[in-house]
Amino acid sequence: MSKDFISYGRQSIDEEDIQTVIETLRSPFLTQGPKIQEFEQAIANYVGAQYAVAFCNGTAALHAACYAAGIGEGDEVITSPITFAASANCVRYMGGTVVFADIDAHTYNIDPVEIRKKITPNTKAIIPVDFTGQPAEMDTIMEIAHAHNLVVIEDGAHSLGAEYKGEKVGTQADMTMFSFHPVKPITTAEGGIIVTNNEDYYRKLQLFRSHGIEQTKYSAEQGDWYYEMTDLGYNYRMTDLQAALGLSQMTKIDTFIQHRREIAAFYNEAFQNMDGIVVPYQLQETNSGWHLYMIQLEKGSRKQIFEQMRALNIGVHVHYIPVYWHPYYRQLGYDRGLCPIAEKWYENALTLPIHPTMKTEDLAIIVSNIKELVKEFN
């Protein structure tokens, strides 16, 4: 048994991060100040995007992206069922209809073949999810989108720092969202961002996060105090405190990602040829950020192993329940059996701890107990 609880994910905060936030607390700005633009620019530069707009959380960022894409009543948006509910909920916020396309049995990401099957005259957009930090097949998805005049909003909540065909995730889609929740690659406590190379989307994102209010050409005539609300927006703004923490975290992101990759390699080697366990497959020409490390248990032993590992103070988890299994979506008419590959995968999936603060002894404890339990229950 582990002496201390080993969580599946957690933030890595050091004294430099703390001092950066303290300095901002002592500055004139707590909410809307210079750190936000600095943080946006840092993210944009890191991924190679032209624009970035920060939000109070990743869900708000996805909501804003759907607004910028013009999604509304009667529009259909295709996404994966194996994701956090926000990837679908953002469509519902705008009055759109969520269409779930099944996953690829190897990558666990949305399958482009299934996307093609789901396209109708009402399809407006695609929201591929970079599940666990592995990029979706963006070249094929973008080809499909261009052929049907669709907007692609990449849910990269897991994939900041991941690479697709030699480039950082963040410029392949029309808009890409990254999350800064504490278990993500870097944290701002809560926070999210949209990166894009489209200036029109950029302006709409800025408008949407700030009540739909903007300074106008009439400001000089009316006075510097003058502004107008031109659309119905939200207060989805990030604070300077969050942005300051994010800026400090960005100086360490490559170290964080490298540590995650080392942990994944350790797990892969430990479980590679073990009966009863399937290790994650990595798509060629991608380099995952390894936000999550998930195995499949082949013998239907997930519940027993989950409970035994938790009893040993090891915080295994399961990501995710298929979105359309949730009561809200069932009430909308979604039935089980809609995405059979995703459902079969979910029944056997188990998330193992992976985060930058893990030690070698933590990994040894996890591996030895998983091996023992798999043998016991198989």
Commentary on this structure:
Helix content is 39%, strand content 14%. With 378 residues, it is an alpha/beta fold. It has helices at 15-25, 34-47, 58-68, 86-93, 112-118, 138-148, 199-209, 219-222, 240-250, 253-271, 302-311, 327-331, 340-348, 360-377, and strands at residues 51-55, 76-79, 97-100, 123-127, 151-155, 163-164, 167-168, 175-179, 192-196, 213-214, 228-229, 277-278, 286-287, 293-297, 349-352. The protein contains 14 helices and 15 strands. Strand 6 (163-164) and strand 7 form a beta hairpin. The strands form four sheets. It has a seven-stranded mixed β-sheet with strand order 1-9-8-5-4-2-3, sandwiched between helices. Strands 7-6-13 form a three-stranded antiparallel β-sheet, with no helix packed on it. It has a three-stranded antiparallel β-sheet with strand order 12-14-15. The mean pLDDT is 96. The two termini are 21 Å apart. The protein has two domains: 15-250, 3-Layer(aba) Sandwich (Aspartate Aminotransferase, domain 2), CATH 3.40.640; 253-377, Aspartate Aminotransferase, domain 1.
Secondary-structure blueprint of this entry?
Elements: H1 15-25, H2 34-47, E1 51-55, H3 58-68, E2 76-79, H4 86-93, E3 97-100, H5 112-118, E4 123-127, H6 138-148, E5 151-155, E6 163-164, E7 167-168, E8 175-179, E9 192-196, H7 199-209, E10 213-214, H8 219-222, E11 228-229, H9 240-250, H10 253-271, E12 277-278, E13 286-287, E14 293-297, H11 302-311, H12 327-331, H13 340-348, E15 349-352, H14 360-377
Parallel strand pairs: 2-3, 2-4, 4-5, 5-8
Antiparallel strand pairs: 1-9, 6-7, 6-13, 8-9, 10-11, 12-14, 14-15
Helix pairs in contact: 1-9, 2-9, 3-4, 3-7, 11-14
